[in-house]
Amino acid sequence: MREIAQMSKWLGNGTFMGIALDVGVTGLEIKEACVTGREAQCRRAKYVETRRLVGGVAGAAGAASFGAKLGRRACNIFLGIAAKGRGELICSVIGSAAGGYAGGNLFGDGGAFLGGQILEVNGDLIFQPEGA
After folding, report:
1. Helix, strand or coil for residue 131?
2. What is the pLDDT of residues 18-76, one digit of tens each?
3. Is 5 buried (19+), middle (13-18) or exposed (0-12) by CB count in 10 A?
4. Helices (H) then strands (E): counts for the chain
């Protein structure tokens, strides 16, 4: 039981570090686009990268929770036994990591797509859907 609590503590700290790294990468992407003389790319990068960050973090959180449940069920189905204790924890961690990775990528790309569809016209923000 003590080992499970320690693993939970490490995973919780890793989550905050991962989010901090994502925020840092987003800031660097925006800073790179905001080189003097590139105002249009700078504005676009602010919308695209911010949406990518928000979509990625939210998608990873939701999909990780779903992946943990799915991982436990998959272990029960494929192993044919109800995993208890450490086995259930390992299946949950693997499912959570896979779900978080997939959800973060999918929703991050979706957020970047939506951020790329925002245009600024005369100081007003306009969402321009595909094909318009």
Report:
1. coil
2. 788 888 988 888 888 888 777 778 888 888 888 888 888 898 888 988 888 888 888 87
3. exposed
4. 3, 2
**DSSP reduced 3-state for 125:** strand
Residues 15/76, Cβ–Cβ less than 8 Å: no
The three-state secondary structure class of 124 is strand
34 and 42 Cβ atoms separated by less than 8 Å? yes
Phi, psi of 93 (to 5 degrees): -65, -45
126: helix, coil or strand? strand
Encode burial over 114-127: b for 16+ CB neighbours within 10 A, e otherwise: bbeebeeeeeeeee
pLDDT computed for residue 132 by the predictor: 45
Q: What is the mean pLDDT of the chain?
A: 79
